[in-house]
Amino acid sequence: MPAPDDVMLALASVGRTFVDGTAAVRDLNLRVHRGEFVSVVGPSGCGKSTLLRLVSGLEPATAGTVDVAPCRLGYVFQDPTLLPWRTVTRNVELLAELEGIPRDERRRRVAQVLDLVGLTGFGRARPAALSGGMRMRASLARSLVLEPELFLLDEPFGALDELTRERLNDEMVALFTDSAFTALFVTHSVAEAVFLSSRVVVLSPRPGHVVGEVTVPFPYPRPGHLRFTPEFGRLASRVSDLLRDADGGNADWTVSA
Q1: Using one digit for the tens of pLDDT, what is the confidence trace for 123-135?
Q2: Distance CA 151, CA 158 (A)
Q3: Residue 140, SS3?
């Protein structure tokens, strides 16, 4: 049966087994509705990144079905993957250039997204002159310039220090509030997942499948001090408990970023 119109992506009994016999995910079922921000957490190696590659079409499923509504798709990887010989402006406009968007329209969009991610004035800089947080902002801007309806994010802030990570989380909430895209976000941080998301999905150890989820009721936009409220702590603890149960009590999950 086709998915309802409000469903952006639907995975039914999905499996992905590699040629060496390794099963990354098995019997994975997930639906993400339009306008949701869904974070995916789980033990290392449980197939979180594989899930994003299946949704994007970079890898095929070996079982089940992956249905994604026709949409503009943005993908942000763990590494900013900026071209060192290009300026920030030229890096940010790269995907739009490959899509054949006219130069004037590209430059208009680039100026707009650089302002959104706080990089106005850095258009002529090259990646080597930027901090880690600024490079990740440029990577986000590069996808935002395509005006994505579905945003796939694979631990984009995982390598950053805690203060920078929290600041970029605040900015991500603002972007989501303003741009109204649908997001599927992979992270190892429980606090990050709860702060950003309308729903947190927990995967089992490999082969990954959904073992639980937690709905996050806080309205958007979300102020930074939300992280220090008792309600936030209780939700983060629920996610941590699901993770520990999924991993047989072996994982040392914390609620901090």
Answers
A1: 999 999 999 999 9
A2: 17
A3: helix
Domain tally for the chain?
A: 2
Does residue 137 carry a pLDDT above 50?
yes
Q: Which residues of 211-248 are buried (b: 16+ CB within 10 A; e: fewer)?
A: bbbbebebeeebeeeebeeeebeebbebbbebbeebbe
Which one of 148, 179, 200 terminates a domain? 148
Q: Token pair for residue 177?
A: 């509030």
Q: In terms of domains, do 119 and 220 share one?
A: no
Judge if the upstream peptide bond of residue 207 is cis by omega within 30 degrees of 0: yes
Sign of CA pseudo-dihedral 42, 46, 50, 55: negative
> What are the residues facing 31 on neighbouring strands?
10
Q: Are residues 87 and 46 in the same domain?
A: no
Retrieve residue 201's tokens.
């999905």
Question: Could you list the residue range(s) of the whole structural domain that residue 135 is in?
Answer: 79-148
42, 45, 48, 52: CA torsion to nearest 10: 170
* 117 SS3 class: coil
Residue 82 φ then ψ, to 5°: -85, 145
Q: Report helix, strand or coil for 16.
A: strand
Residue 255 has pLDDT above 60, yes or no: no
- pTM of the predicted model as reported, rounded to 2 decimal places: 0.89
